[in-house]
Design goal:
Layout: H1 19-40, H2 49-76, H3 80-101, H4 104-112, H5 120-135, H6 142-172, E1 175-177, H7 187-199, E2 205-207, H8 211-220, H9 224-235, H10 252-268, H11 274-279, H12 287-319, H13 330-342, H14 346-350, H15 355-370, E3 373-376, E4 387-393, E5 396-406, E6 416-421, E7 424-425, E8 432-433, E9 436-443, H16 456-473, H17 495-501, H18 507-510, H19 525-533, H20 539-556, H21 567-577, H22 593-597, H23 606-623, H24 633-644, H25 652-660, H26 667-672
Parallel strand pairs: 5-9
Antiparallel strand pairs: 1-2, 3-4, 4-5, 6-9, 7-8
Length: about 675
């Protein structure tokens, strides 16, 4: 039987890929990429962009696509067999990409190119490539080069193991609660938990550390002991503080080794620390600029955060008779205060957000704003719940995407967008390859024949990931290295995603995407007004929480000695910016996958940095809203052309200024969050 990983005629054959296909396909594609590299660096081959693309990029792109499919399945359909196949192939993959990025013969080819002979898109890609070679160790020699390669291989192994430990520690935990214990938990969450217990042949309600199960318990369960039990399990995942067998997933030794390797890598490249390496391809000029930005934002947010906490304490003492709230109480108190102050609960709101209706509403906004049509499409998928769509303009295909909404065992937590393939005017057949994205979330499933219900936070998450997807799919750039999300500075890549979140707070938008699960009524204006009034509820606390993560990440990669324990640094950062201190047993760093397994090392600040950009970009829509309260299509067109379609073909600041006519300011962000 033919190997599905070697079929590049169209979309990946996700339904046919098996663990046993991985090794032979990767061996075959690595061989092709190897041959491409040797042909590309041959002295007789001209240092010409198109020739290099045909000789090398076609082969490496195939390898990247096949490995992308394997990595994706490893994240969404993890099985022991697939994990073993993935881990077995990972060293060879890492070794090849490292060697490619540091090949001095290839670097010499790129240096020999004449930038004046290139298109603007190619020039940007060429500039990025030269920078990539330097950061990839191409200027290193002898032992230093060999050591650099060994570091990359080991880091890939450690990042994968970190991810596995976090997933396994989350999946391993279950608590079967009694009826009394789940008093207060929403009926739909209870129905899912009861069904899960029955599947296991157990009585009661199966509670897990997956967010659709964990969060509602923390927000709504009246039973304090239950909240404490789940909280403790959650914040000690993958650490030495975990209960019983759970300590075997401890990520602390991995973190220490990752940090030591990153520092060594930075020093090999001639930098003092990894933070300096991280910012080279970003908008920020230095770690110091980032740290100053975070501290400036913290100074503005902290008074609001302190007020938020005092509000919670006062309410807890007066209304809930909780004189000394503990960490497992805050979410519960917050929910109760929100209900009392704004006369609604997240649960009441959730009844209006049926997943299919929300999706239809999201599509309607995108179709109106960006002048496209979104249609159902068909493709092989990895799970029956996965949907597939196409985006067109004037009947012409622009891009396609998979949507995998539901939480399930064996699926990594969180939400993300990834590319399946990039837009590319292919050098091998002169055909335009259209972009394909995958959008992955972890929402609760529907029960009792009803559609899945989303929290408003879930809706925001969906819009966020779709923003990334649009950035990837609406690009008009034909050079794959700078089309869509490729080549976009990491601290600007969150602009389109966070930009889309703003629509989740527009009444005229929401009325088209809400329908009560029982009555079909749209979200009532009165309830929307309450939700809007509550928008900045605890915004101060949430801001300092994000700053805590971002500051810890940057200081960890600039000022911390990897030989030392990292927990005291986290405690110091918390003492500086946090307004609620977690208990001594909490080990949040051990599941901080963004920075230890997800590409955000010394880059977590990007979320806050891009928030400034996205809030300012959205302010352009607020300034040009139509008389009937809908976003201006003209502004949408300008945003699409200057931000989305431009992809990574020019520096992000240039794209921003082309859209806004000026550099970004913090004003809109502070105003949106009620901190102006």
């Amino acid at each position: 039987m033919a190997n599905p990983l070697l079929d590049f005629s169209d979309l990946p054959l996700f339904d046919q890929i098996r663990p046993e296909h991985v090794a032979p396909a990767i061996d075959d594609l690595l061989g092709g990429a190897e041959a491409g590299l040797e042909a590309a660096v041959a002295p007789e081959l001209p240092a010409d962009w198109a020739t290099l693309a045909r000789t090398l990029d076609v082969a490496t792109e195939r390898l990247g696509r096949a490995w992308g499919a394997v990595s994706h399945l490893n994240a969404v359909m993890d099985t022991p067999e697939l994990r073993a196949a993935y881990n077995a192939a990972l060293p060879a993959i890492t070794e090849f990409w490292t060697r490619l990025g540091s090949d001095e013969r290839l670097y010499a080819k790129y240096k020999a190119m004449n930038p004046d002979a290139l298109t603007p898109e190619q020039r940007q890609a060429h500039k990025n490539a030269l920078r990539g070679f330097v950061l990839g160790g191409a200027e290193l020699q002898g032992e230093a080069k060999a050591r650099y390669a060994a570091i990359q291989e080991r880091q890939a192994e450690l990042g994968q193991k970190f991810s596995e430990n976090a997933l396994d520690a989350t999946d391993a935990y279950a608590y079967y609660a009694t009826e009394d214990e789940v008093d207060g938990v929403p009926p739909d969450v209870k129905a899912v938990a009861r069904a899960a217990a029955e599947t296991d042949g157990m009585k009661g309600y199966k509670l897990t550390l997956k967010l659709p199960s964990y969060l509602p318990v923390m927000q709504f369960a009246h039973n304090r002991a239950l909240r404490q039990r789940l909280y403790r399990a959650y914040v000690t995942r993958a650490s030495d503080q975990a209960e019983g067998e759970g300590v075997k997933y401890d990520n602390a030794p991995l973190i220490r080794e990752i940090l030591a390797l990153r520092r060594e890598e930075a020093q090999l490249l001639g930098y003092a620390n990894f933070g300096e390496v991280s910012v080279v391809p970003k908008m920020a000029d230095s770690p110091t600029e980032v740290i100053d930005f975070l501290r400036q934002l913290a100074a503005k947010a902290r008074p609001y955060a302190e007020r938020d906490v005092q509000d919670l304490r006062d309410f807890a003492a007066k209304e809930l008779q909780l004189a000394d709230p503990q960490p497992w109480d805050w979410a519960y108190i917050g929910e109760k205060l929100k209900e009392a102050r704004y006369a609604f609960s997240e649960q009441e709101l959730k009844q209006y957000f049926q997943a299919p209706k929300v999706l239809a509403g999201l599509f309607k906004i995108v179709e109106t704003l960006f002048e496209v049509a979104i249609r159902r499409d068909s493709a092989p998928v990895w799970h029956p719940s996965v949907e597939f769509y196409r985006i067109e303009r004037d009947g012409k295909l622009l891009g396609q995407f998979y949507l995998d909404p539901g939480a399930r065992a064996g699926k990594r937590g969180g939400a993300w967008m990834d590319d399946v393939r990039a837009r590319w005017l292919r050098p091998d057949n002169a055909q335009l390859q259209t972009p394909v994205a995958q959008l992955v979330c972890n929402f609760a499933e529907g029960v009792d024949g009803k559609p899945p219900l989303l929290t408003h936070d879930d809706v925001i998450t969906l819009f966020h990931e779709f923003g990334h997807g649009l950035h990837h799919m609406l690009t008009q750039v034909n050079e794959r290295d700078v089309s869509g999300i490729s080549g976009v500075e990491w601290d600007a890549v969150e602009l389109p995603s966070q930009f889309m979140e703003n629509f989740c707070w527009e009444g005229d938008v929401l009325k088209h995407m809400t329908a009560h699960v029982d009555t079909g009524e749209p979200l009532p204006r009165a309830l929307f007004d309450k939700m809007l009034a509550a928008r900045n509820f605890q915004a101060g606390m949430q801001t300092v929480r994000q700053i805590e993560f971002a500051l810890f990440d940057m200081l960890l990669h600039t000022q911390h000695d990897p030989a030392d324990d990292f927990q005291p640094l986290l405690d110091e950062v918390r003492a500086e910016v946090a307004v609620i201190q977690p208990p001594p047993f909490a080990r949040t760093a051990q599941t901080f996958s963004h920075i230890f397994a997800g590409g955000y090392a010394a880059g977590y600040y990007s979320y806050k940095w891009a928030e400034v950009l996205s809030a300012d970009a959205y302010a352009a829509f607020e300034e040009s809203v139509t008389p009937d309260g809908l976003p201006s299509v003209e502004t949408g067109r300008k945003y699409r052309r200057e931000i989305l379609e431009a992809g990574g073909s020019r520096p992000a600041m240039e794209s921003f200024k082309a859209f806004r006519g000026r550099e970004p300011t913090m004003d809109a962000l502070l105003r949106h969050q009620g901190m102006a």
